[in-house]
Design a protein that fits this description.
two-stranded antiparallel ribbon, 207 residues, single chain, alpha/beta, 7 helices
Length: 207
Amino acid sequence: MRALVIDGSSRQNSSVTRNMTRQFREQFARVYPDGQLEERDLIKTQVPHLSADTIEGFFAPSPSLQAKRATVLSDQLIAEFMAADLICFGVPMYNFNVPSALKAYMDQIVRVGRTFTKVADGELQGLCAGKRALVCVSMGGVFAGSEMDLVQPWFKAIADFLNLDGIEFICVEGTSRGNFSRQQAMDLTSDQIHHFLTAATAERLSV
């Protein structure tokens, strides 16, 4: 089993989502002692937003040398993503949506001919079957499932478009409230992460 952990929080030690992705790494090592895990910290290694050169490199039949150079990081990110069976995202909600660093990352990997393909005029097909995603979300308020929660619908749309086998969410809400208990929240997320990993094992054995 191969896993990829993607951290999108601008915070470090005080980040709730980084605590959740840490739990994922620790539990992955216990559930899959022979597994392989890669990490991509979008704050330590910043991913640029799309530029004209990047778009040319993605779509032009004969891109310029400058455009080819602009897609080198995209190639690396896609190689990491496609090699993983399980992908864990750490996603703090910023202004009701994902951090811009994570949006930039997704724009680099949702790429024609690599993670999706054209099968007919106007018809597209994802190339990422066999993967499952876990999205660890933190919210300062209580927004999960409401019209102000743009994180989950966005991820669901991406997962469906890329043809992932499944996507699950763990939402920690109310982190900015005075009665928020980090320890209590982390106890709950630990159980949920464990369930995600063991369910992935059961599914693989049943195939």
